[in-house]
Amino acid sequence: MDCDTGFDDAVALLVIDRASSFELVGISTVVGNTTLERTTANTLAVVERFGIAAPVHAGAAKPLAQEPQTIEELLGGGALGTVGRSFPPPRRRTVDSRDAITALTAALERGPLTILATGPLTNPAIVLNLRPELAASVERFVFMGGSATSGNHTAAAEFNAFADPEALDVVLRAGIPVEMFGLDATRQVPIGPGEESALRRAGTPNAELWADHVGFYLRMLDRRTPRPMALHDPTAAASLAWPELFELADARVEVELHGSRSRGATLCEFRVPTLAQPNARVAVSVQGEEVMRRVLEVLRAS
Ligand code: BDR
Ligand code: CA
């Protein structure tokens, strides 16, 4: 798993570890929601708290062709905003001596590998640029990012796509089996005050910790009034745990690299193969309530 932890990346990590049948062989970090230093520290804090054994590898500190576009001021608390408690800083877990590029390359050499990416795609793009033949070892490339309609970071672009559009372009052109969980899918999985209360009622220290983070997430746009928010990264993770809750459609996905207002926008042509050759499967329909119910169970039992 490649991530820029972040509250929702943390939930995604837990879903993979607790609810999927995948063996989590490694976690790599990337600049995105916040600096590489913070996404790595946040990831270490999460794996330590929840006893996730996979090694953590630090990855790219800069996108391929632009400066970092971090949003920690929006996300609060070094991208792990909270209305109460936060993850204690890691005391035992440290970063692995191998960086993300080395570790991901080695894992692909052992291949085949499923990659779940919940941040900007800089790390996998670097590996695919350096070793294009390793594309053959990517069994599935599942990522949260993009949108077939409107954006969230800009009117046109979703954040992960906007934060490194050149990297997304590399992945889309690599000839690997890409599965895109964009905003059209994640907006079908809202988390709201009901989930915050359910976590508080669970009464365990971990459930309360999650409630404090969910509480911040729901008040991110308006400090006084909690409002339902899309649960982004866990939706992509949930597709690996519970594929029966998702419907995907073949599409040709291309990312805008040059538009002065539309940089990072993902254009999804669903009329394939008539008008274009497909290069991805895009999540179009999600049983959102059921995904949310199962994710909540994972958090409650954590
Ligand atoms: C994506 O952007 C980040 O802020 C979230 O962690 C998620 O990966 C949603 O656009
Ligand atoms: Ca993320």
UniProtKB/TrEMBL annotation:
Q: Tell me which SUPFAM superfamilies the record gives.
A: Nucleoside hydrolase
- List where this protein forms a coiled coil: none
- Give the Gene Ontology MF terms in alphabetical order: hydrolase activity
Q: Which positions fall inside the Inosine/uridine-preferring nucleoside hydrolase domain?
A: 1-292
**Family annotation (Gene3D superfamilies):** Ribonucleoside hydrolase-like
Q: Name one Pfam family in it.
A: IU_nuc_hydro
Q: InterPro entries annotated for this entry?
A: I/U_nuclsd_hydro_CS, Inosine/uridine_hydrolase_dom, IUNH, Ribo_hydro-like
Indicate whether Hydrolase appears among the record's keywords.
Answer: yes
Keywords from the UniProt entry: Glycosidase, Hydrolase
This one is known as: Nucleoside hydrolase
Question: Source species, please?
Answer: Agromyces soli
